[in-house]
Amino acid sequence: MSIPPPLPSDEQRLHPWSWLFALQQQVQQFLLPLLALLVFGSRSDDDLPYHHWISGAIVLSLVVSAVLQYLSYRYRIGSDALSIRSGIFERTRREIPFARIHNVVVHQNLLHRLFGVAELRLESAGGDKPEAEMRVLKLPQALELERLIRQGSDGVTPQIDTNAPHSDVLLALPLSELVRQGLISNRALVVVAAAMGAAYQLFPRRATSDFIEEHGRQAFGYASQLQLGAITLVSSALLILALALVLMQLVSIGLSIVQYYGFRLSEADRRLTVERGLFTRVRSSVARRRIQAWTLREGALHRLFKRRQLRVDIAGGGQQQEQDGRALKELAPLATPATCDGLLQHLLPQLQWPPLHWQAVSRRGWWRLCLPALVLMSALSALLIYETGSLWGLLPLLWLPWSALKAYRQVSRIGYSIDAQRVAIRGGWWNRWWRVAELDKLQALRLDRSPLDRRFGTATLTLDTAGAAGAPALQLRFLDEAQARALMAQLEQEMVRRKLRW
Questions:
Q1: 64-94, pLDDT tens digit by residue?
Q2: b/e for 221-240, b at 16 or more Cβ within 10 A?
Q3: Whole-angstrom Cα distance, residue 317 to residue 359?
Q4: What is the pTM assigned to this prediction?
Q5: Which pairs from 343-349 meet CB under 8 Å and 24+ separation?
Q6: N- or C-end of the chain: fewer Cβ atoms within 10 A?
């Protein structure tokens, strides 16, 4: 690996091609309006193509805006902060201390890799937007700036060093694990649902229904001409369904490989770094002390393949980073239970994991969890009976025994464990989960009692940290009221005598 050049301390511009990437982002935002203007804005009887002039003016304004952004953007690397100056008419100057930067993301898509550049994104503890997006830098400069910011945010005076810091690889996913991840996640269902929703929105409803009816009649007529028997028709339908499922699984595997190819979790200077991506490479790093909560997940398919998932909630990121997939959330997208437990034990050395004993909660009123299914299935059954006038409308009620069994098993698995440093909560049955948070990260406690809680003498205790906004919620349900108040008082005492650590 080539040694990155030292970063200058005076004001610098971004890469000369940065305006091209700013233009790319702006075009993506205006792509649909431009396409709509070009496709629907023209008429055959128009003498002058006004829509072409409007489209050209919009594109020209986007180019001018991108170039002005490049000319007005300056940054300077100080001893303990990053200074950014931008704007033409409304000038802005931002001072970002290294100690306030919680997450650093180095992003490279295909265009970035073609030009040998990268986008650097700096995230703090709050807000939905990053503190700064440096679009774009040369890749060696971006990696060196990431290292300097990482040192400053960890409380170390940043120093330019040509020796790369030593890092330990904690987890690397081979291709076989990516195949399992695709089979478990089944991401193709999400893609198909999104495509169907987009088609429904873009194309007129009548045209869509006519297309389905026309091709359905053609397929039915072709099948009728073959004069196939009932067994052959059923076998053909099952074969087509099986082929569709196989195709969906192959698409899911492909999507998993594209997203997680080259996945590597490493640790250096008490900081975790995740690298992944086939076409778009994403490198995210976060200090271990910034992690607010840890989550282990295990669905039915995970248990079939004997795998688990380890996720974290950090103080920062926001919804925008969640949606574009750049936020560091998954430390282990897929690994064996022993590997996930070992990672958690390594990263939280003072925690005994798994806990030797789980405290159970009250099972009174367990049926409350199946109330939504009871209301929904009853309404659906009544509607079907009204529409069909037959007892076949009672079929949705067959779901209620399964819902009741699931509710009872869920309440049976709810438990918690508290030691001198951590609080751990578990729940779920069909889809199981474990949540862990350090007592030093707790910010607030909330005790809730619904009318049904007052009826059964129970309560819900919710624990709040700076960034533990993931699902499931960090809360304990179905606690006895006295048990909940005693637990709340115990945690309050711990919060008072401890210093909040971000």
A1: 888 888 888 888 888 788 888 888 788 888 8
A2: eeeeeeeeeeeeeeeeeeee
A3: 33
A4: 0.79
A5: 343/170, 343/171, 343/265, 343/310, 344/294, 344/296, 344/310, 344/436, 346/170, 347/272, 347/288, 347/291, 347/294, 348/294, 348/421, 348/422, 348/436, 348/438
A6: N
